Amino acid sequence: MNLDAVVTKMLTDWSVLGGDSVRSASPESSSVCSSPETRCSEHRELDDFSFGFPERRSPPNAHRLGKPKMSVKRRMKASEREKMRMRSLAEALHQLRDYLPPDYSRRGQPLTKIQTLKYTIEYINELSELLSRA
Q1: What dihedral angle (degrees, nearest 10) is formed by the CA atoms of 35, 37, 43, 48?
Q2: Nearest-angstrom CA–CA distance, 134 and 118
Q3: What pTM was estimated for this model as a whole?
Q4: Where are the beta strands (DSSP E) in 1-134?
Q5: Which of 101, 97, 125 is nearest to 111 (CA)?
Q6: pLDDT tens-digit profile of 23-73?
Q7: Closest CA relative to residue 116, chosen from 133, 98, 129
């Protein structure tokens, strides 16, 4: 079977299955609808399909799920607790930095939280290794 015969058979099968005719892909000859105002009859029938999704016409904020709003007093107390927690953490890290030898601080710059924790672990491992060798 040659290529022309295969193409002819495919085009024949296409028209039997419901395809009207072969359309050009160029924009000039295309009858594809580009805006809702100029929708052609072929695409208007798609408006009737819901594709299995239920209609959702309620406003987006009508059924908002989530936590109820905190009172101003509760929010202020929570904010104050968070500030105290962060101050406590900063103080603990500062004390931890004081225990590290000066070799770990780079050019006098303060260490970040992560650097402080990593260098502390490294320093503890070195001290443990030193004690195990003794």
Answers
A1: 120
A2: 25
A3: 0.45
A4: none
A5: 97
A6: 444 444 444 555 555 555 555 555 555 555 555 555 555 566 777 888 999
A7: 98
